[in-house]
Amino acid sequence: MKTKHLFLKKKIIATIVASVLGVASQGAFASGETITTVVKISGIPWFDRMETGVDLYAEKHPEINISQVGPSAADSAQQLQIIQNLIARGTDALAIVPMDPSILEGVLKRAMDRGVIVVTHEADNQVNTMANIEAFDNAEYGTALNERLAQCMGGEGKWSTFVGSLGSRTHMQWVGAGEENAAKYSGMELVDANNESFDDANGTYETAKEILRKHPDIKGFQTSAGNDVLGVGRAIEEAGLKGKVCLVGTGLPNPSAAYLDSGAITAIGFWDPQKAGMAMNEVARIFLDGGELTDGMSLGVEGYENVSVRPGPGGGKLVVGNGMVIVDKDTYKARLF
Fold this sequence. Notes:
This protein is of the alpha/beta class. Helix content is 43%, strand content 19%. The strands form two sheets. The chain has a seven-stranded mixed β-sheet, sandwiched between helices. Strands 6, 7, 8, 9, 10, 11 and 14 form a seven-stranded mixed β-sheet that branches.
């Protein structure tokens, strides 16, 4: 494939760039091919869990230099700078969870033009990628979350939504599908939609308190970023509204446990970030080896054993697994991590 043929040229360019930057050619990356996973933000439970998958995959493939990095804040500009630096240092493959896919289009095109393998996750609108991996159909996931919320609300009352950012492709798909589902319940009224959280539980908590003050009769929240349920759950609990205000959103079982037990969180939906990290790296490795993706293939990772592979918006592929999970206080303990 064209990308594979560009590796030698890319290595020569990377050595020159490293020399200009004052970095030894083997100092940036050790000898051997490299796969670098770039997440939205480092140091939060969701992407800490993803890193365990990247580390597990690295143990299985010691012949490849595999690692994960990310910005210290949920900031598209910081993520862009990290990717630019990695390209300059000569990584062979990038597995990226974009904060905002549109902001990365230019740099990812330049990366692929230089022979870098590019794989993305949570960005099915990414044009400049060789493959975007999704754990499930995003419209189905958003609908499932909202249906659980509607059941809790009895199909009526005010509800609001949170997204990590307005540029987060999957988050906007989930709340969009939620709105469509809620439309079949004439009594449900969406208010103050699409609050940006930037995956900050404290910021989400403050915004949720404001919404509760503004709408004292609100009955539900649908959230998207992994920390949103923690911030909204805290606000609901402190306001004494457990069991009166419903909360359904994306989250992880361990961090959400206390609020699930108390009733401040009604239910959480998720896919295992560990498995997503492994799936992204497996796809990157397949491309590094000159392989191809085929419909129905197994990536050898739970939730990605029989993936759907179809054309993406650019020249790459859209890979969809079956990793959706929704749990509540009665079922979450079986899925703790």
